[in-house]
Amino acid sequence: MRFLFTRRWVLFALTVALMAWGAVLLGQWQFHRLQERRADNSLVARNLAKPPVALDSVLRVGQPTNPKDEWRSVVVHGTWDDAHTIVLKYQLRDSVAGIDVVTPLVTDAGPAVLVDRGWMATENVGSTRPATPAASSGEVTVIGWVRADGTGHAAEVSGLQTRAISSVGAAQALPYRLYGGFLDLHTESPNPSTALGATTLPDDTSEGPHFFYGLQWWFFGVLAVFGFGYLAYDEWRMAREAALAEPVESESP
To answer: Is 130 buried (19+), middle (13-18) or exposed (0-12) by CB count in 10 A?
Structure first.
């Protein structure tokens, strides 16, 4: 087995050890992601089950949403500012192109909250803003689910269009203060004249592929070690066979 201490085999062993160690770490990372997913699912399930509360008890003007409050149900009274409706572009549903219609709901106190009123099919390609169904006139009562702001360049608003809903980005295009975060519409009273596609709620039972990915990485680590052992055995076997064959070859005429 002296061949194991040659330069080639030492480097091979170190490479395999690093691969196995990396596979173990990646497996642990996937199982950590699984625990996070389960915690998120539990939070979403609890929040969806809670009764609606007043908007001001969850959201604050100009302040980010508390991650623990996402998918809480809140109730708010106000009037739609349809003139400042924002189009959320590139929203696919069942492979159908469309947009989400986001309209500010101005409260009696002055500040407004962004409300995603729902989805509609459209051939919108982003270069032009499509026409959207008019919001109801007069005062309305809205119950919606709290959502956190989008971030990055996608949240910028240009021509009343955006690729991610953000109260921070929308504030640059609106003439009043906004509550942090936004709402996905649940119900509106009185009912709107044109109903849009309802919000798709998150699946709080799905744990994703993390468990199987974790097992897969650990399997790769075990496979790397097993493969090294097999190749070392094969090298030893061939060396032994060669050594046994040498005396026979020397006695031949």
So the answer is: middle
Query: What residues contact residue 203 under an 8 Å CB cut-off, 6+ apart?
Result: none
Report CA torsion sign: 129, 134, 138, 144: negative
DSSP sequence for 220-242: HHHHHHHHHHHHHHHHHHHHHHH
The residues facing 118 across adjacent strands are: 101
Among 191, 236, 232, 215, smallest CA distance to 16 is for: 232
Q: Is it the case that residue 82 has pLDDT exceeding 60?
A: yes
Distance in angstroms (rounded) separating the CA atoms of residues 83 and 252: 102
Residue 247 scores a pLDDT above 80: no
Q: What is the spatial distance between Cα 75 and Cα 56, in angstroms, rounded to a whole number?
A: 9
Q: Which residues contact 244 (CB under 8 A, 6 or more apart)?
A: none
pTM comes to 0.78
